[in-house]
Design goal:
alpha/beta, TIM Barrel, 336 residues, 13 helices
């Protein structure tokens, strides 16, 4: 496992992060979820990403149980605040001071820790003054409950405004967590250049495009049983935009590139996002421990200029690159 600094800070995190967005507390039984966390630790992963909104707080609880007994100082725990939790009352979402202060206490209890290494604004809150949000983050840092602060799916303009306030308040904004893959490249035009200027790293999610870049979906073939594309609880809807023959056929054409560097298609996809120097880590999920051991092999891989060029030729015109898509990620009003 290789490690990278997170933003303009002294914090190092593993190039591969284990995330439990669609697994812990919902799709996976707890024993299997704990086995995946154990597999991550065995594979050298030290960084674990979750959020209070995942499975309405259950994911944090499962992660806390899974890490129980492991040396706290040897792992980095990342969680988030924004989405509706609990009974979803009028103040159970967003980035108000009230919600942030209550949410960090709940997260710490569920994660069974005194602090989280990185606390992230899960989205941008258009209904709360940014000054209020950043002051609340400054206060949880000074209280010792949070070591570092990050955000998720913020635009370049929002990052710049947040970074300015953080600096004035005496703390650093060091990360952004966007979706990023060979098929979803909306951060490249504006977010990445701005982040490089400000000392902010990307903690990217869905590097294998929710399974599409594994090559397991073959045009004209039945969908694999138990795959994301067959999940009627929301997974199928999220993956639908890529379940087209033109996309799936091109993905199959990536196989020779992967084979040439002795990687699976999934490993190639994770390695591809890590070629971007502004990416500190790629978040992977897993429904089986074996998937963890396979995906970590992407760490430390250097893809040749020729391989990167061939990938661009194969998928470039199919990739979403419109920077405006980032702004669409944050709801204009809070969900209640």
């Amino acid at each position: 496992m290789h490690f990278r600094y997170l933003g303009n800070s002294g914090l190092k995190i593993s190039e591969i992060t284990y995330g439990n967005w669609l697994t812990h507390g919902s799709q996976l039984e707890n024993d299997t979820a704990k086995a995946c966390v154990q597999a991550s630790l065995e594979a050298g992963i030290t960084t674990f990403d979750t959020a209070d909104v995942y499975a309405n707080t259950k994911a944090e609880t499962v992660l806390g149980e899974a890490l129980k007994g492991h040396r706290r100082e040897s792992v980095e725990i990342l969680t988030k605040v924004f989405g509706p939790t609990g009974p979803k009352g009028p103040n159970d979402s967003g980035l108000s001071r009230k919600h942030i202060m209550e949410s960090i206490n709940g997260s710490l209890t569920r994660l069974q820790t005194d602090y989280v290494d990185l606390y992230q604004a899960h989205r941008y809150d258009y209904e709360t003054p940014l000054e209020e949000t950043m002051q609340a983050f400054a206060d949880v840092v000074r209280a010792g409950k949070v070591l570092y602060v990050g955000v998720s799916e913020w635009t370049a303009e929002q990052l710049r405004a947040g970074h300015k306030l953080a600096t004035e308040l005496g703390f650093q904004l060091i990360s952004n967590q966007p979706q990023y893959s060979m098929l979803w490249r909306v951060i490249e035009a504006e977010v990445v250049p701005t982040s490089e200027e400000l000392g902010i790293s990307q903690v990217v999610w869905s590097p294998i495009a929710q399974g599409v870049l594994t090559g397991k979906y073959v045009p004209g073939q039945p969908l694999p049983e138990g795959s994301r594309a067959t999940d009627d609880k929301g997974g199928a809807n999220m993956i639908a935009r890529w379940m087209r023959d033109d996309v799936l056929e091109r993905v199959q054409k990536l196989k020779p590139i992967a084979e040439e560097v002795d990687l699976s298609l999934a490993q190639l996809a994770v390695a591809w996002v890590l070629q971007n120097k502004n990416v500190a880590t790629a978040i992977i999920g897993a429904s089986r421990p074996e998937q963890v051991h396979e995906n970590v092999k992407a760490s430390g891989v250097t893809l040749s200029a020729e391989a990167m060029s061939t990938i661009e030729e194969l998928l470039g015109d199919l990739s979403e690159k419109n920077p405006a898509r980032t702004e669409e990620s944050s709801p204009k009003t809070r969900e209640t």
